[in-house]
Structure formats: C-alpha cells, structure tokens
Amino acid sequence: MPYDDLFQQISDLVMCHSPSGVEGEVDAYLLERFRALGLEAWLDEAGNAIAKIPGRNSEKRPNDAARSGIAITSHKDEIGGIVKSIGEAGRVQVRKLGGAFPWVYGEGVVDLLGDRTTLSGILSFGSRHVSHESPQKAQQEDQPVRWEDAWVETKCSLQDLEAAGIRPGTRMVVGKHRKRPFRLGDYIASYTLDNKASVAILLELARVLKEPALDTYLVASAKEEVGAVGALYFSRNRSLAALIALEICPLSAEYPIVDSEAPVLLSQDGYGLYDEGLNQELRQAAEQTGIPLQLAAISGFGSDASIAMKMGHAARAACLSFPTQNTHGYEIAHLGAIANCVPVLQAYCETDWP
Fold this sequence. Notes:
This protein is an alpha+beta fold. It has helices at residues 3-14, 24-36, 102-105, 136-141, 158-164, 176-179, 193-208, 229-236, 276-289, 304-310, 335-339, 341-350; strands at residues 40-43, 49-53, 70-75, 80-86, 91-97, 108-113, 118-124, 151-153, 171-174, 182-184, 187-190, 216-221, 242-250, 264-269, 272-273, 294-297, 317-325, 331-334. It is globular, with a radius of gyration of 21 Å.
C-alpha cells in the first residue's frame, strides 16, 4: 500500500472520535467502507463493526466447528476521559477512560461528546506563577499532574451544558483540531494510532483479500481499552480456528524491538502466552512474502487476542503489531511496519493450514 494512501487512510480514521462506548462516528465510516467493497458488514450487539469475507472451504467443511473461521481484530475505541461531575462556572471534572494521562494531552482543547452537541473546552491545570500556597506548585516540583488536579474549562453555564447533553458519563477526547496526524518522512505521528492505524490494516485487508481458505471476519472491536469487551463478546459467540489481534507494540530499551519497517509478533504479554502453533504459521506466512518479523515477549500490555485466550474464548490466538514510540500518547510509527502487516495476514488467510 503506498505510504501516501496509508497516511490518508489513517488520518481519516483518527479524525473520527471513538472513545470507549461512544464509537458511532467511526462505526458509520467503517460500515460505509466495508459495504462499498461489496462485503457483508454489520454492527453486533456489543458494538463491534464486522465484515465477513467468505472462505473457499466453508462449504466443504460446514460442520467442522473447530475450523469454522478466522477473526482478525483491531479495536476502534480510543483512550480519553469520562465526566465525573460538573461544577460551577462551567468547570467539568473528568477521570481517565483507559490508559490516559492528563500530562500527555497537556493544556489545550478537548471535545466533550454531549448527547446533543459536541462542546469544546480547555483541559486546564492551573497557573504557573504561584507559591507553595497553591496546589499547582507541587505539580511543578514534586509530582506529575493527576486527573484529580485537572479540569475542563468550558465557560458555559450549567444550563448550556445541560442543553448540550453534558453529564456524568459524557466522554472526553482530544479536540479534533489537535488530532490531525503529522508526517515525518516515512513515519506517521498522531494521537490514537492505538488503534486507528490497525483499523486501517483491516480496511486494506478488506480490499485485497478475495478468497481466504476459511471464512474470515474483520472485526473492528468495541471497548477494548476498558477490558476487551467487544472481542470477548464476539469470541464467546463464535467458534474460531484462530483469533489474531492487530496492535501497536511499545518501543522501549527493555524490549529487543527496533524502529523499522518490520512488524512484531508477540509470544507473551501481560495476560499470558500466545499460541506457538499459530505464531509458527504466521512466521511461515511472513517468509512466503519475504517480510521479516521481529519477535518479542512484553509486559504491561494486553490485546483482544490475549484477553480472549485467557478467558477461554479462543483456543489459538496471536498478536501482530508494529513498533510505536510514545504509546498511549502522541504516537509515532513507521508507515512501512503498518503496511507490511497486510501481506503477512493475506498470505496467512489464503493458505490451507493442516
């Protein structure tokens, strides 16, 4: 996939707000794209956006439940905040939704996704020109900013906030005008590459994968950042030969991962081991395409696949990812590492495995 096209595809996805549980904006975009390719596509009860590509062996083995299909998942929800309370003078208290830290966003515009209107405000930490008598002094010298120390300044009346549908439970995300990705040569830099870049891989697979061996489900999963809710629902209700999650992979000195065009295949994460047999098949698929894979075992991380496998919803699970700097922040990833996931997965899906 040409880098310019991939950059534009990711940019379009990033600009669709989708905090966990309020994902309708990206859902509409994905269903339109899937259906434009002639695929059967739908939203299930858990909010997953799913496209099905029929397999050539489906009719040959209709009763073989153990080989009923393959699911490739990429979560479509993003981290952010959730409104806890609304105070006087238009100040809104928020708490984290997923692995969000206020200092990552910094002071600046955020969007509150009200029931009737999206309302913008300023994530605020207080003035710098203060003495030890002000709580903000500790933020400068002793401790990082916590959500309890921050607020969203709207300058709206309580009546205005109510009219917009801003209430406890309203989601907060980075403002759209701060979200548009930035190009650094062959790299893309943006908020919410986790996991909009992986959703772009799903869309490209939807375009190029014509005749997989087994029924293949491309699942843009819901509410992953708050417990892999969508993937657990899907995997509980469908017998699968394999579940493969697409993810970011943190670049850090503690892991043997280099910043390159090579995707990363995980053996382990914070939820447990991935399936070695499935990983071997994915390595063979990568060899068929001539694309090198990096191998890693990491912690402090989980995916749709590892969580589903730990819960007993999937017997065989794997995670294919791409190296990413600043995970859960303003992320940076090589466009080649993202693009190279597509031919590996295409080769895997088109192969008749024993």
